[in-house]
Structure formats: structure tokens, C-alpha cells
């Protein structure tokens, strides 16, 4: 019975997707979980002994910029090592097939961009791990940096074999070349403090300390991003469909977009691992909830429009 109900849901969703012209997608960390990146939610929400969200504030950076940079350098390192999953590529292809498709992403990992999601149809609510900006009051520098590590002091420590009298030089060299990163998210791993002088500094003014360019708790989403989203919403009296993927959509302003889309006639399709992760306003009879891994479900859901997802061989 459950299987036949799921099949009927997929069939009705497919029909509505194919007829939809104006589609909005709201993406969250659950999308990138399929690429192996932590969502930093629930029991897994700690980094070392810190609540991960407590490190994502201006106050935390002012109090301990070295610790905050270690946290973000770790996340940058993992994001660069990860690869876009099939859902990232499926959404990018949907954007190419549907001119009226817009994506609002709460993710900062850069995976949608690396899946070649059209830039004009991708709005980053919280910025990117690879954005940096100067903290000096007298400097307005902002740019991107993909170096890993961004400075030598933030390199992930390596678990290297120690030489001993029984090890030959060639064996020690081989072991050193295969050294693994230490898990610095584990509080048992020693992580020495980093002096401010060794942290990233501004290439423009030369004196200001750089900070991650993500939008932290307590900060406003850039006005240009909000303006672009408002322009898309106001461009038509109707929105046909909103896809809510890998997010509980309960944090504002992102949560408000579900209600705004619904007010313009949109039906809601949620893709999430947990049945309880539905929008704050709930689901209506005409909406859909697809429970499971977004990396597996989304490509199948979008297949009637985009065909089989093609992942580059180098990915």
C-alpha cells in the first residue's frame, strides 16, 4: 500500500513539474549531506566541544578569531575535497531547461557552483565559504579565495609516521607521502591556538584581518541578494511549484519564501530525510513529501524534464 501511494505521489508530482513554468527551489544542508558534508545539526552539531552555531557569529570572531578561522578552514578543506552529487547536477540542468526556475541556497559549500548551476538562477542566501572580506573599518575589500589552506598556519595537521631505527629512509618517505589528515573536529585532537599575526590578512590594506565572508547569525543577508529574489518573485503573479530540499525551512527569512510561493499558488514538494522536517506552515493535501536521500531522490524526480543526469567523468 505504501509503495503504491509513493508511486502515485511521484506520478502526480511529475505531471505538475512538467507543466510548471515558474519554479522556486529552497536548498539546505541535507542536499550536501549526500556529498559527505556534515549538516552540523542535532547530535552532530558540535565541532570539537563547541556548538557549531556559536562559532558562526561576529561576537565569536571578535573574541577568538583564531578558533573561528580554524573552524572555517576545516569546513573549506572538506568542501573542496567533496564533489557535487547527482542532485546538484540535476538542479543545474533543470535551471537550463526551465528559464523560470530560481534557486535559493542556504548552503555555503560551493557545490552548486561546481555543478555549473547557472549563476543568474542561483541566489546564495548565506554567501560562500570561499568569500573573504576585510574587517578594518577603513577598508572595504571583499573577494574570493580558494587556497587550501588559506594561510600556512591553518593547514590541517597530518598523522605522519615517526621515524625509528628499524625504518629505512624509503619506507619512511612512503609512509609520509600517504599521511592522513587528523580529525580536528574531535576535541581529543590537539589543536594549538593560532596568533592573530598568522591569520589571513587583507591583500588590499595589508593590515586588516580577513574574515570568512559568510552571513553569520545576527547579520543581514546582502541587500543585492534580497533585491534579486524580490525581483524574481514580483515578476509574475504566479509561482507554480516550490521545491524544499534538505532543509526544515524554519529559519527566516528562508522560511518565509515557502509561504510567499504558496500565496502565489505554488504547490510544495519537500525532500528530506526526516518526516518531521516539513515547513513551519505544514503541508497541504495537494503538496508532496518525499522521504530519503536528496542525492538519490531529486535526480529521479526531475528526470521527466531533464532526462538522466549526466555527471562529468572527472567529477
Describe the structure.
The protein is an alpha/beta fold. 34% of the residues lie in helices and 15% in strands. The chain is built from ten helices and 13 strands. It has a six-stranded parallel β-sheet, with helices on both faces. Strands 7-6-10 form a three-stranded antiparallel β-sheet. Strand 11, helix 9 and strand 12 form a beta-alpha-beta unit. Helix 1 crosses helix 10. The longest helix is centred in the first third of the chain and has 18 residues. The chain is globular. The model has no long low-confidence stretch (mean pLDDT 90).
Brief sketch in words of this structure:
With 315 residues, this protein is an alpha/beta fold.
Q: Could you tell me the strand content as a percent range? A: 5-15%
Instruction: Specify Rg, calculated over alpha carbons.
Output: 22 Å
Largest sheet: 6 strands, parallel
Structural class: alpha/beta
Helicity, as a percent range: 25-40%
**Number of DSSP strand runs:** 13
The H/E string reads HEHEEHHHEHEEEEHEEHEHEEH
The count of helical stretches stands at 10
Query: Mean pLDDT, nearest integer?
Result: 90
Query: pLDDT below 50 for ≥5 consecutive residues: which ranges?
Result: none
Query: How far is the first residue's CA from the last residue's CA?
Result: 38 Å
Strand order of the largest sheet: 5-4-1-11-12-13
Shape: globular
Amino acid at each position: 500500500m505504501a509503495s503504491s501511494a509513493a508511486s502515485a505521489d511521484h506520478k502526480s508530482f511529475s505531471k505538475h513539474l512538467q507543466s510548471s513554468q515558474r519554479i522556486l527551489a529552497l536548498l539546505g544542508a541535507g542536499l550536501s549531506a549526500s556529498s559527505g558534508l556534515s549538516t552540523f545539526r542535532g547530535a552532530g552539531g558540535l565541532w570539537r566541544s563547541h556548538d557549531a552555531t556559536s562559532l558562526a557569529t561576529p561576537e565569536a570572531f571578535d573574541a577568538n578569531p583564531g578558533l573561528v578561522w580554524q573552524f572555517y578552514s576545516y569546513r573549506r578543506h572538506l568542501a573542496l575535497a567533496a564533489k557535487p552529487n547527482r542532485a546538484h547536477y540535476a538542479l543545474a540542468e533543470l535551471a537550463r531547461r526551465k528559464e523560470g526556475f530560481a534557486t535559493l541556497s542556504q548552503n555555503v559549500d560551493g557545490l552548486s557552483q561546481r555543478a555549473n548551476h547557472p549563476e543568474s538562477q542561483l541566489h546564495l542566501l548565506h554567501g560562500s565559504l570561499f568569500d573573504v572580506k576585510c574587517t578594518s573599518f577603513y577598508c572595504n575589500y571583499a573577494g574570493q579565495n580558494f587556497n587550501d589552506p588559506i594561510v600556512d598556519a591553518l593547514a590541517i595537521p597530518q598523522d605522519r609516521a615517526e621515524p625509528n631505527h628499524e625504518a629505512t629512509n624509503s619506507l619512511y618517505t612512503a609512509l609520509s607521502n600517504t599521511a592522513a589528515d587528523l580529525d580536528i573536529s574531535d576535541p581529543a585532537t590537539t589543536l594549538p591556538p593560532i596568533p592573530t599575526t598568522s591569520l589571513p590578512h587583507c591583500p588590499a590594506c595589508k593590515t586588516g584581518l580577513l574574515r570568512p565572508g559568510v552571513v553569520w547569525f545576527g547579520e543581514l543577508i546582502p541587500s543585492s541578494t534580497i533585491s534579486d529574489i524580490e525581483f524574481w518573485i514580483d515578476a509574475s503573479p504566479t509561482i507554480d511549484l516550490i521545491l524544499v530540499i534538505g532543509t526544515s525551512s524554519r529559519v527566516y527569512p528562508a522560511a518565509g519564501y515557502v509561504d510567499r510561493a504558496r500565496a502565489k499558488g505554488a504547490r510544495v514538494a519537500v525532500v528530506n530525510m526526516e518526516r518531521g522536517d516539513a515547513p513551519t506552515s505544514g503541508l497541504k493535501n495537494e503538496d508532496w513529501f518525499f522521504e530519503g536521500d536528496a542525492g538519490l531522490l531529486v535526480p529521479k524526480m526531475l528526470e521527466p524534464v531533464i532526462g538522466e543526469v549526466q555527471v562529468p567523468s572527472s567529477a
